[in-house]
Amino acid sequence: MSLRKAAVITAGSWGTGLASVLADNDFAVTLYTRTQAQADEINDSRRNGKYTGDFVLSERITATASMEEALSGAGVVLFVSPSHAMRQVARQARPYVLASATVIHATKGFEPETMKRMTTVLAEELPHLDPSRLVVLSGPSHAEEVVQRRPTTVVVAADCLEAAEQAQDVLINPYFRVYTNPDVIGVEVGGALKNIIALGAGLSDGLGFGDNAKAALLTRGLAEIARLGASMGGHALTFSGLAGVGDLVVTCTSQHSRNWRAGYLLGQGRPLDEVLETMGMVVEGVKTTKTAYALSKQYEVSMPITEQLHEVLFAGKEPQQAVGHLMGRGRTHENEELADAFGGKWIL
């Protein structure tokens, strides 16, 4: 029996994790990589060493450096490119993506130059597709645990419920549970903004502030995510779900998180350029902080944590000074600013 074909673009840690899920779900998976050396490593040794270590990949996964080969005949296409590269990658993929394919992205960030969400970028670069059927996947999910088949729960969202349910059917299995959600904006915004708070959580840990500070950071960080997300058109309930508080918790409390690790190094006094070089992988939270700061001004939304992280990352502000600024803010009601974002309605 011939297997259904899926393409995963590109072959980073999360792309490899999702390729493993699809392979376990009886797909023949073609994993696109930008380098022939990485493709050879995956095909010859069954490993993607830089991203998933010594984990042995399924025989159903084949890697290629040819976009045409990766997408040829693929009924499922999963984009997992870094946010800053999504437009270029989608443009390269455009001639080969079938109009009938189920197209999903699992990238948590905004396009830096335009501040656009990833479904908007994909809709612009893949105009032969119905934009209502573009699906976003998000939620608390470390690739390291997914490739080890540890229980993981995520959410998929699309404007078209049928498309979200198709993605759910493609991905769900005994260790990878998938919920559907109609709120594309909320799921994308929540997935992107939690990386900012994870940077802050790592920075707090690097400064040795302890659990009290981190708990407050997560709680007030969630309020910031909800305020901006609602102003952009997201639904309040989304931010209390998997793409909101769920993803926030896992990203802010685990050393698997590259955003937490980057923040931790910053908290220990390492300069940003050195931190990014040390990480060796994309740290989405850095670019997202700049975008979210600009969006907060555009939508006139109060985001004090984001503002102070922006100062630390891009204006040379000392982390201790940023914390002092946050702790010394004027008195306010816990829900006051959040309620403003929802037309005065108390939601938390």
UniProtKB/TrEMBL annotation:
<feature type="binding site">
    <location>
        <position position="258"/>
    </location>
    <ligand>
        <name>sn-glycerol 3-phosphate</name>
    </ligand>
</feature>
<feature type="binding site">
    <location>
        <position position="139"/>
    </location>
    <ligand>
        <name>sn-glycerol 3-phosphate</name>
    </ligand>
</feature>
<feature type="binding site">
    <location>
        <position position="13"/>
    </location>
    <ligand>
        <name>NADPH</name>
    </ligand>
</feature>
<dbReference type="GO" id="GO:0047952">
    <property type="term" value="F:glycerol-3-phosphate dehydrogenase [NAD(P)+] activity"/>
</dbReference>
<feature type="binding site">
    <location>
        <position position="282"/>
    </location>
    <ligand>
        <name>NADPH</name>
    </ligand>
</feature>
<comment type="pathway">
    <text>Membrane lipid metabolism; glycerophospholipid metabolism.</text>
</comment>
<feature type="binding site">
    <location>
        <position position="141"/>
    </location>
    <ligand>
        <name>sn-glycerol 3-phosphate</name>
    </ligand>
</feature>
<keyword id="KW-0963">Cytoplasm</keyword>
<feature type="binding site">
    <location>
        <position position="51"/>
    </location>
    <ligand>
        <name>NADPH</name>
    </ligand>
</feature>
<dbReference type="InterPro" id="IPR036291">
    <property type="entry name" value="NAD(P)-bd_dom_sf"/>
</dbReference>
<feature type="binding site">
    <location>
        <position position="258"/>
    </location>
    <ligand>
        <name>NADPH</name>
    </ligand>
</feature>
<dbReference type="InterPro" id="IPR011128">
    <property type="entry name" value="G3P_DH_NAD-dep_N"/>
</dbReference>
<feature type="binding site">
    <location>
        <position position="14"/>
    </location>
    <ligand>
        <name>NADPH</name>
    </ligand>
</feature>
<dbReference type="Pfam" id="PF07479">
    <property type="entry name" value="NAD_Gly3P_dh_C"/>
</dbReference>
<comment type="similarity">
    <text>Belongs to the NAD-dependent glycerol-3-phosphate dehydrogenase family.</text>
</comment>
<keyword id="KW-0521">NADP</keyword>
<comment type="function">
    <text>Catalyzes the reduction of the glycolytic intermediate dihydroxyacetone phosphate (DHAP) to sn-glycerol 3-phosphate (G3P), the key precursor for phospholipid synthesis.</text>
</comment>
<feature type="domain" description="Glycerol-3-phosphate dehydrogenase NAD-dependent C-terminal">
    <location>
        <begin position="183"/>
        <end position="323"/>
    </location>
</feature>
<keyword id="KW-0444">Lipid biosynthesis</keyword>
<feature type="binding site">
    <location>
        <position position="284"/>
    </location>
    <ligand>
        <name>NADPH</name>
    </ligand>
</feature>
<feature type="binding site">
    <location>
        <position position="247"/>
    </location>
    <ligand>
        <name>sn-glycerol 3-phosphate</name>
    </ligand>
</feature>
<feature type="domain" description="Glycerol-3-phosphate dehydrogenase NAD-dependent N-terminal">
    <location>
        <begin position="6"/>
        <end position="162"/>
    </location>
</feature>
<feature type="binding site">
    <location>
        <position position="34"/>
    </location>
    <ligand>
        <name>NADPH</name>
    </ligand>
</feature>
<dbReference type="Pfam" id="PF01210">
    <property type="entry name" value="NAD_Gly3P_dh_N"/>
</dbReference>
<feature type="binding site">
    <location>
        <position position="257"/>
    </location>
    <ligand>
        <name>sn-glycerol 3-phosphate</name>
    </ligand>
</feature>
<feature type="active site" description="Proton acceptor">
    <location>
        <position position="194"/>
    </location>
</feature>
<feature type="binding site">
    <location>
        <position position="194"/>
    </location>
    <ligand>
        <name>sn-glycerol 3-phosphate</name>
    </ligand>
</feature>
<protein>
    <recommendedName>
        <fullName>Glycerol-3-phosphate dehydrogenase [NAD(P)+]</fullName>
        <ecNumber>1.1.1.94</ecNumber>
    </recommendedName>
</protein>
<feature type="binding site">
    <location>
        <position position="108"/>
    </location>
    <ligand>
        <name>NADPH</name>
    </ligand>
</feature>
<feature type="binding site">
    <location>
        <position position="143"/>
    </location>
    <ligand>
        <name>NADPH</name>
    </ligand>
</feature>
<keyword id="KW-0443">Lipid metabolism</keyword>
<feature type="binding site">
    <location>
        <position position="259"/>
    </location>
    <ligand>
        <name>sn-glycerol 3-phosphate</name>
    </ligand>
</feature>
<dbReference type="InterPro" id="IPR008927">
    <property type="entry name" value="6-PGluconate_DH-like_C_sf"/>
</dbReference>
<dbReference type="InterPro" id="IPR006109">
    <property type="entry name" value="G3P_DH_NAD-dep_C"/>
</dbReference>
<feature type="binding site">
    <location>
        <position position="108"/>
    </location>
    <ligand>
        <name>sn-glycerol 3-phosphate</name>
    </ligand>
</feature>
<keyword id="KW-0547">Nucleotide-binding</keyword>
<keyword id="KW-0594">Phospholipid biosynthesis</keyword>
<dbReference type="InterPro" id="IPR013328">
    <property type="entry name" value="6PGD_dom2"/>
</dbReference>
<keyword id="KW-0560">Oxidoreductase</keyword>
<keyword id="KW-1208">Phospholipid metabolism</keyword>
<keyword id="KW-0520">NAD</keyword>
<dbReference type="InterPro" id="IPR006168">
    <property type="entry name" value="G3P_DH_NAD-dep"/>
</dbReference>
